[in-house]
User: What shape does this take?
Amino acid sequence: MSDLRGKVALVTGTAHGIGSAIADGLEEDGALVHRADRDTVDLSDADQVTDFLAGIGPIDVLVNNAGGVTGQVGKPLDEVSEEEWRGVLDANLTTTFLCTRAVVPTMKNSRAGRIVTISSGAARGISLTGIQAYVSAKAAQVAFTRQMASELGPFGITMNCVAPGFVLSNPSTQAQWESYGEEGQRKLTEQIALRRLGTAEDIAHGVRFLVSAKASWITGQLLSIDGGHTGL
Assistant: This one.
């Protein structure tokens, strides 16, 4: 899709699904891709992030994909513990902050860089998961992206967000899909203009464009890749 030969990329949350597809796509485009997931490094721990990046060296492309619902299910707010709240925010928002902060110095020195954060369609409305911390973290990722795009733009660094629609990309989304039953699945699909769920590769294609030279004048944006989802 684009020529990333000579570029070094870091993709987080690559154990499966969207992260894995993004990493594979960037490799197809010629980048040297480093993959990180919770089995290799705790990206919500500043010291671990620093040590991990020290072993890699300068990064040209960062994709903040780590996150998710951390095994939680939706329940009333008055039943949500502080630990559960912080766990989801750390997995999604803190990881984005720490990884972005870690790669920025060398990007500034080279006066170039591409950063893409994987948010969610939930950032534009409500979350189908019903998890308050999840929708809050995903919306915060968008705000963080816009602020950082303004801050980093003078250094030639772009930062954008992708908001995927419903994608069967991991065990959590598969379980969520199955919980809807046949009628719920039909209703959800009918809210999508293209009448199908997305794939991990659909999301990866958007990321591959945003980190390419063709997107050099695009920054601070939220790109919805959701098949034309019209429901809340």
